[in-house]
Amino acid sequence: MELRDKKVALLVAKDYEDPEFWYPYYRMMEAGAQVIVVGTADGDGVVASKHGYPAEIDLRADVALIEVEVFDGVIVPGGWAPDRLRRCEKTLELVRALFDDGKVVAAICHGAQVLISADIVRGKRMTSAPAIKDDMRNAGSVWVDEVVVVDGNVISSRSPPDLPSFCREIIKAMR
After folding, report:
1. Which long-range contacts (C-beta less than 8 Å, at least 24 apart) are formed by 27-31?
2. Distance, CA of 156 to chain centre
């Protein structure tokens, strides 16, 4: 159990991308981590994915901030959820606080939009869904088209086929 005694915040909002949420959810649990599903401060208790699959929220972002020091990392899945997550200042504060503490901040696909809004991508070498590469560059990141990129405590990936490599790097960084 590589991640025993580790806690990971997994961000979620309505219209999340199913595999980008569930694959890390189960992979982190399999590695021994406690996964805390964190929703926006004003969201519902259960949110549906792009395909209607429900995810139950354990904590809202404003509550999670009270205990930010207990988290060892955060994972931001893609889909259309990042557009909702990035509008929640408490969610951005959580991501910023973990980044500033040197904890793992991981985003896949459009999840990087949350990192852009948290203003933590400047100067970072990153990847994402190609659809937001201009946004990444305009926010100051060095965007590359690679399966997974690790730059300090920031881990980024492109899309569902990259999930095995993405999760491997998260686990490696959190050991």
Report:
1. 27/163, 27/167, 27/171, 28/3, 28/75, 28/167, 28/170, 28/171, 31/1, 31/2, 31/3, 31/171
2. 9
* pTM exceeding the 0.90 threshold for the entire prediction: yes
Q: Per-residue confidence at 111, pLDDT binned at 50, 70, 90?
A: very high
What per-residue confidence (pLDDT) applies to 64?
64
Is 109 an annotated catalytic residue? yes
**51 given a catalytic annotation:** no
> What domains sit in the chain, N to C, each tagged with a CATH number?
7-174 (3.40.50.880)
Query: CB-based contacts of 123: which residues, under 8 Å, 6+ apart?
Result: 140, 141, 142
Torsional class of 131: left (φ above 0), alpha (ψ -120 to 50), beta (otherwise): alpha
pLDDT in tens, 116-145: 999 999 999 999 999 999 999 999 999 999
Query: Pseudo-torsion of CA 70, 156, 165, 153, nearest 10°?
Result: -40
Options 51, 88, 109, 167, the catalytic residue: 109
